[in-house]
User: Fold this.
Amino acid sequence: MLDHLRFREDEPAGAPAVTVDAFLTQTNAAAVRIEPGDDARSLLPFLEQLRLVEVNFPSFGDGRGYSSARILREAGYQGELRAVGDVLVDQLSHMRRCGFDSFLPEKPFDPEDAQAALNRWPEVYQATGDGRQPIWAKRHPANERD
Amino acid sequence: MYRYDQYDQAMVDTRVAEFRDQTRRRLEGKLTEDQFKPLRLQNGLYLQLHAYMLRVAVPYGTLNSAQMHVLANIADKYDRGYGHFTTRQNIQYNWIKLEDAPDILADLAAVEMHAIQTSGNCIRNISSDQFAGAAGDELIDPRPYAELLRQWSSFHPEFLTLPRKFKICVIASETDRAAMKLHDIGIRIVKNAAGEIGAAFYVGGGMGRTPMIAPLIRDFVPLDQLITYSEACLRVYNRYGRRDNKYKARIKILVHELGKEEYTRQVEEEFAHLLTQGIEPPIAELERIKAHFTDPAFDQGASDDLDLSDPAFALWVARNTVAHKQPGYVIANISLKPVGGIPGDASAAQIHLMADLAKEYSFDELRVTHAQNIVLPHVKKADLHTLWQKLDAAGLGAANLDTVEDIIACPGLDYCSLANARSIPVAQKISQRFAANGKTGELGELKLKISGCINACGHHHAGHIGILGVDKKGLENYQLLLGGCEGDDTSLGKITGPGFTEDGIVDAVEKATEVYLAERAEGERFLDTYRRIGMEKFKEAIYA
Ligand code: HEM
Ligand code: SF4
Assistant:
């Protein structure tokens, strides 16, 4: 079973992630954990120093973490973006599209199911900043982006 | 109409494979029911009182004949021989087995159809004007914009677990035939002073237990920013919509609690940011889609003559047809409201017949309306009599569009696990009552809408006369509402007072119509009279 799925070459950050409140008062931490109600934009002044942002999904049905992830990537965050908590295999490909590159689910994934889910969508309709060419860009090659 | 290319086809095929795999994992016990539920909901599968219900998407209500035939085949093969057309321009089947669902989705995918995001807390099927492309009063065909939004909203990775369901409607005419302002986002395609086409955004409407009419938040979004603006509206909602209480989770509550100005400010801020992100498809994509919605090859010399010597035909023409933008053609409405029937139901044989008639007489096109009827949008006047005869012979000739017999009703307690009361028998009794007393014609336009509970699937808030099923100490009881309207002058109905039994509500409706007939001024519809004279006289008569 897969406990931790990671799509990065670098070493994982060592120090544990602190809450957003703690981070904002002692801003030398390199790892922070966002809860659904936290404003991801409050981290934007500190992206350079962050190596790990954990986005917690206390329940898989609460989708605020998807927006948090995209907001960080749109602002240029390059470090590890890790989905933790009630993360389910059927959400993997959508989370990847929103910029997550690391997954630490409460309940480990079945490796085969995880692989199938990740390879599921050969095409995508939207541009989400994950580097994939949306269908509309393929239809109109002048709009392909690198 | 729109046809899939290899990419669109790949998307629906992938979805079928994905759902087959998810269903297998559920049946093997790898997924709990709690985990499976949102997955099946996003494929239109609800668990109801007796069986699974499957809701199939009819994007902006437009279908071709081959698709309609497949809908009939599904009714025959996997259901009990019926399909139920819904107020969101979709079709539902009430007797589905979970094991069959992946095969049904595969049958649908073969004719460019699907059940993607027809339920669940995601962006739902996009609705539109059922007369799009045919109506004389439209600025432009709204469907290309709806299709652009359909593709953007399908599997949008950020918006698959919203606080609550999300419904978008796009229209492009002066007259609102699609209840646009009662959607989470209502878009009206407009022309600005400079003559450019763009979109006006109304956000935060909805029915359910707290009905609200959407306020205008921006009067002009340029067409090359349509997706970006929509994404901004959705992101603000996804981040700040309430998740603590499912009854307060719709965007209407967010807009209401923040205030329209503050919500708009947040959207504009997000919009300014997203404009830098390159998420908007090029205008060339909109042009590509538009090319699918050009006019059919109308006969330019078609005659406007119509022989109305047969009175039954003349009545149907008067009540069920609407002027077409093309001389020599009409828009023909097929009422799925035969007297005493189940509103919106059609048998497999009837669905097949409508498919054949569309092919023969309407350039291969049909529409589903939010009033649960079917439209043949482009019928030559010269063919109209033959068409009517064929409809009439199949029990599809009811001449009652927009009359008191043309009732919208939700499934209610006959099928729905949330219901307080039955809706269908009330609809049946009311249409029988008015067919028997012969007042249908005299009453003219009268929109009557019934919901079996406060969730308002039957649009009772928006009926000139609305009926709401409530539970009164374990007994089915019905409240009466007056004065709702879904059109341009959108308004919400008001409850008259204490509720009624099933027979009592039928009497109360009849009494309300008598007040109208006694009080109406020249040219007034029921709604107009109510708005002029107010509730009091109606109350006196109903509770006398
Ligand atoms: C039989 C199973 C059904 C169930 C369990 C169901 C459930 C619900 C619920 C819970 C709501 C309220 C949502 C909210 O306010 O947040 C709702 C609203 C609605 N449903 Fe249904 N529904 C069913 C069938 C239908 C059918 C058959 C139609 C179409 C005829 C329909 C059309 C609608 C519409 C138009 C609304 C109002 C949307 C709004 O609030 O803006 N539903 N439904
Ligand atoms: S209004 Fe209530 S009873 Fe009717 S379908 Fe909706 S949830 Fe069921």
About this structure: Chain B touches chain A at residues 5, 7-8, 10-11, 14, 17-18, 21-22, 25, 30, 35, 38-39, 121, 151-152, 154-162, 235, 238-239, 243, 273, 277-279, 281-282, 284-285, 288 (CB under 8 Å).
